[in-house]
Predict the structure.
Amino acid sequence: MFLDVKDLAVRKLRIRKTYAPGSVDFHSSEIKQLEPLEVNATAELLEGQIRVEGQLDTKIELQCARCLEPVVEEVNRAFDLFYAPLPKDEKPKEDRLKDDDTEIGFFQGEGLFLADVVKEQVLLALPLKVICQSDCRGLCPNCGANLNHEECRCETHATDPRLAPLARLKQDWLKKQ
Ligand SMILES: [Zn+2]
Ligand SMILES: [Zn+2]
């Protein structure tokens, strides 16, 4: 769906749109949309700026930062965004339309795609890092075993770095026997 300034100049637009999983590209293999993404919003032209206000809801699967197992995050985000026109010869600073919640965004040309707005709002709603459970033990750095499910035979992950000198002493001692 394209939000065209010429249309918005005539009337306020009521938006009810559903994006099926896979139809919004989040540019990350670690972000997987599990359920249809519902957008309920209005778009209008206010003093030359495009205002998009509403709510989006979906479920996203992320990876646990420690053990890489899937973690499901519910996304329910309300937004009220303003996009100002950017002169043709000027390039946006980044790929993103907007940096954070307070800063104003920009659009170039005739308007902007709703999917870009939606993608950005989802990314802003997601935590930078998730863990599946607060005591997730992660993967063994040696053999890659998921330590939540199994004990491996490596000793490195169990070794407290403060005890490393002791462990070395013990090894030396064992060698001498
Ligand atoms: Zn985990
Ligand atoms: Zn291991």
Observations:
- Residues 140, 142-143, 145, 152, 154 surround zinc ion (ligand 2) (CB under 6 Å).
